[in-house]
Structure formats: structure tokens, C-alpha cells
Amino acid sequence: MRLFGKKKDPKMNQEQVLKSMEGLRKTIDDIGKRSQVLQNKAQNEMKDALQRKKQGDKNGALICLKRRKLYETEIGKLEGARMNLEQQLFAIEGASMNKNIFDSLKTGNNVLKQVHGDMKIEDVDKLKDEMEEQQEMLNELNEAISQPIGMMSNVDDDELMNELDELEAKEYETGMLDLDAPVVNRNAPVKVAEPVQKKVENDLDDLYNDLQM
């Protein structure tokens, strides 16, 4: 005798649940078959009752009607039992589906815990700061590498332009640079002297006349 609480029923595994639902479906199917047999018998008893009445066998007709009534009563009981079993089966199927959903959610949650097990928000922030530091260092290195080295690092563009202006002024003073001289276009076509051009044309005409003879 248990003094404290009630003994809990052992938990059923998924295989046992499926087997239980299969048993309920078979019972429901058997009830349907039994109900169909009784309905056929009830119809036959009704036909016999009508036949006996036509023959004047009143007692025989009453007996057929009584048997028909028994069959109909049994059919009603079977239909009620089948309805209860169908409701129970529906409830078990719903509970089984809920259990599967719960197990899936639980499994997914455990996976997330394992994935995030080694991750902390502090570690993420630290990693982000380190990445930003590395990027800043990379930018500084790129800038340092692109700077000129040696003598070119001390050259000032403004100083070079000033030296060029001074050199130009000195050459102008000494006559080395004629700023008013026309600029020669080296890409312009060369113009052949007119007498030479005329002679070439005459030679071509003579050659053409000789070929025509």
C-alpha cells in the first residue's frame, strides 16, 4: 500500500504509441464490419415480417420485428462505441503530434545551445574591436608604403616650380629662349616645293602616254 502519492504509469515510447493507435483503428474497423452485418440482418427481418404478415402469420411477423429491434439496439451500441474510439484515436493522434513537435523544438534548442555554447557577447565585442584595430593598422601600413623614400621624399613641388620659373627668366634674359618664336608642328604634312611638284606631275604624264601607245 502506497502512503504518499499515486504510482505513475510508465511512459510509452513512440513505438508503443503507434501500436496503440493501430489497435484502435483495427477495433473501429471491426465494429464497422459488425454493424454492417447486423444492419443486413435487420433488413432481412423486416422483409420476413412483411412476408409473414401477407401470409397471415401474425406471430411470426412479430417475432421477426422483435429480432429486428434487437439488431437495431445492438447497432446503436456499436455505433456509440465506435464514436468513442474514434474520439480517443483523434486525441491520441493530436497528442502524438504535439509530442513530436515538442521533441523537435527541444532538439533544435539543444543544437542552438551547443552552437552558442562557446560564444559570448563579450567575446564578440572583443573580436570586433580587434578587427577594427587590424583594419586601422592595415590602412597605416598602406599609407606608409605608398610614401616616397630617399631623396624623393624631401622634394617639394612648389620649390620645383619656382626653380623652373627662375630658369625660364634667366634664359629669356640671355636670349637662349625666344618666347615669341612660333611653335613648330611636327605632325603637319611636309609641303613639297612647287617646281619639284610640277616636274613629278610631268614625268607621270609622260609615263602614262608611253603606256597608251
TrEMBL record:
InterPro entries: Snf7_fam
Pfam family, one: Snf7
GO biological process: late endosome to vacuole transport via multivesicular body sorting pathway; vesicle budding from membrane
Keywords (A to Z) from UniProt: Coiled coil
Entry GO CC: multivesicular body
Positions in coiled-coil regions: 39-88
Protein name (record): Uncharacterized protein
Lineage: Eukaryota, Sar, Alveolata, Ciliophora, Postciliodesmatophora
